[in-house]
Amino acid sequence: MGGRNHYDGIDAYAVKLVHIKSQQLCRQTGFSQNDRLYIEQELMIELAERLPTHDPARATCEAFITWVVLQKIADLIRSQKAKKRRIDVEAISLNNFVFTGEPGLSEERWATLDNEVFQRFTNSNARSADERIDLNIDLERVMKNLPKELRHLCELLAKYSISDVARKLGVARSSLYRSIHALRDVFDKAGLRDYL
User: What is the structure's pLDDT at 1?
Assistant: First the structure.
């Protein structure tokens, strides 16, 4: 029969079970008929490695073969699902450095995100209504006492990425970072580090 693996000298029950189970697995999401020969080989390799550990006092040979095949199938399904997750969603760290387009300058990914996007990524807007009211009151108090330039910077940072703010202000990011560190100190002292 074309496209079918042959396993001379292997237990007939094992060969039949592997053929049946590989066909069934190919009908599941994430697998196709093109995977059948690969699946069969994986199952037979697993059996070849595990059969020497079979203890007849604990289970019949057929029961042991069935158990090994089903365990390997579960592994293959888990592996396929994990592969699909990696394809569907690529996890990235917001702390990774990315190049900004200016020669020799990079910054953390979070600093390049629009403020609203950053909040969605980090779920940083997940506060209760009372917490948001308290935060706004504290924020207004701190903002009122900021020097004019830092207050303006804070307002811009609430709406734009660091790159955008640097462009709007016409300053190098290195000097902008110094101002942001000054802002952080003020917010730290006010207990509002999380806001910034």
Answer: 40
pLDDT digits (tens, 9 = 90+) for 77-88: 888 877 766 554
Residues 183, 153: Cα–Cα separation, whole Å: 9
Domain ranges within the chain, ordered by starting residue: 12-88, 97-189
Measured between alpha carbons, how far is residue 173 from residues 47, 180, 193 in Å?
61, 10, 21
Helix (H) or strand (E) holding 36: helix 36-50
d(Cα 63, Cα 92) in Å, to the nearest integer? 44
The CA angle 166-172-176, to the nearest 5 degrees, is 65
Q: What is each CA distance from 178 to 68, 166, 181, in whole angstroms? A: 62, 12, 5
Is domain 97-189 in CATH 3.40.1130, yes or no? no
pLDDT tier at 114, thresholds 50, 70, 90: low
Regarding predicted confidence, which is higher, 10 or 195? 10
